[in-house]
Specification:
2 copies of one chain form a homodimer. The first copy, chain A, is mainly alpha-helical. Chain A folds into 2 domains: about 90 residues, Orthogonal Bundle (Arc Repressor Mutant, subunit A); about 100 residues. Chain A is about 70% helix and about 5% strand. The first copy, chain A, has 8 helices and 2 strands. Chain A has a two-stranded antiparallel ribbon. The mean pLDDT of chain A is about 90. The structure holds a DNA duplex.
Chain lengths: ~190, ~190
DNA sequence: TTAATCATGTAACACGTTACATGATTGC
DNA sequence: GCAATCATGTAACGTGTTACATGATTAA
């Protein structure tokens, strides 16, 4: 997937590893965090496959840079990848893995867990404008305004997802409190 | 994360690599798909760290099995992991990565993409009962009924997530159609 | 008799994470 | 003078994926 993400960005315009790193950091981090080391590794792999071409550009008063451009084979590959039915059916969710084992903790601690998740889930909602700003900035540098439409969709997804997580957390908190209530009731009955 | 997932399951009851594989396949696959090869590798790693202990059990008419049990250090580690603030801030989403580059395709193809995603997103809703059945079966084999509460939460999440994805797809379809309408209007104006 | 289940893995490769390493320029 | 930015990476390790490998038993 990362290979094709990088390929897609190079497809927008010729670029360097460093610039790619910034685009990922500013515009794609919410759904595809990447390390610098990965970018340089994948760029070499893309070159080996003949999907991109590199040109060394000398600069005065700055380090030389390696500018990558997409080849015809690369663009074909990108289109094939977009058309292919290649979305994984299931994805890993650390959140749900932890939830699954939360019975190991006291209900009180489990409650705290969901409060924490709920709070985290408001981060994107709060910084949502910021992210959209940098996406719109990026859109302005490019030609085709239709692309911004799809970028907006990814931001929409982020907002909807966080709202859903908050609703889920609220429900989980409710379920735990209900259980605690039932437990206390049982204890009370036993004491009678 | 997988290490702790396996540790958590062994914490419920002593078990073998093969049984772990089945529990992952039947009850955890929606949020943590795993290969058999990973399980055996991680089991060895858990043993090296002293979090589990292995006992070889001979069987008549069946292959021997390696039964793993959690150690005191292992249970401490599990609790520490549950309490720790260790959820990754951002997760990779192949769905959003593809969406981000969908401007490379014709709007018609993009529409098909979202129709496909929407259809896929109904799978869990449809097989939801099945999964909950196998979770309830698993719950019945264990002692503490409180654990089932947290398992139910993960299923709830699945249902809510799919519903959200469907709503998002519908919205994306609407956005594309709106854009297509605007484009046609522009063309019509130009022709006048 | 054939497929599924029980039960174990190894090997090779792909991808993600963490830490380290260098060095000039620009802005405060 | 110091931090941030520009620009390049390497090394080691951890985790996920794919394919292969073996062999007995049980149910249709």
């Amino acid at each position: 997937m990362l290979k094709h993400g990088i390929l897609g960005l190079i497809g927008y315009e010729d670029t360097t590893g460093y610039e790619l790193m910034r685009v990922f950091r500013d515009s794609l981090r919410h759904f595809w965090p990447v390390q610098t080391s990965q970018i340089y590794r994948e760029l070499r792999a893309l070159e080996e496959r003949g999907w991109v071409r590199v040109t060394r550009v000398e600069q005065s008063g700055r380090p030389d840079k390696n500018v990558f451009s997409i080849t015809r084979a690369g663009r074909e590959e990108l289109i094939d990848w977009l058309r292919a039915d290649n979305l994984p059916k299931y994805e890993r969710s650390p959140l749900l893995l932890k939830t699954f084992f939360l019975g190991e903790l006291e209900p009180e601690e489990a409650l705290q867990f969901f409060k924490g998740v709920e709070a985290e889930a408001s981060v994107f909602t709060e910084e949502g404008d910021e992210t959209m700003d940098s996406v719109e900035d990026y859109a302005a540098t490019l030609d085709d305004p239709r692309k911004a439409l799809y970028w907006r969709m990814t931001a929409e997804f982020g907002l909807m997802y966080e709202e859903m997580v908050r609703a889920w957390c609220a429900r989980c908190v409710g379920m735990i409190e209900e259980m605690k209530g039932a437990g206390e009731h049982e204890e009370a009955v036993r004491k009678e």
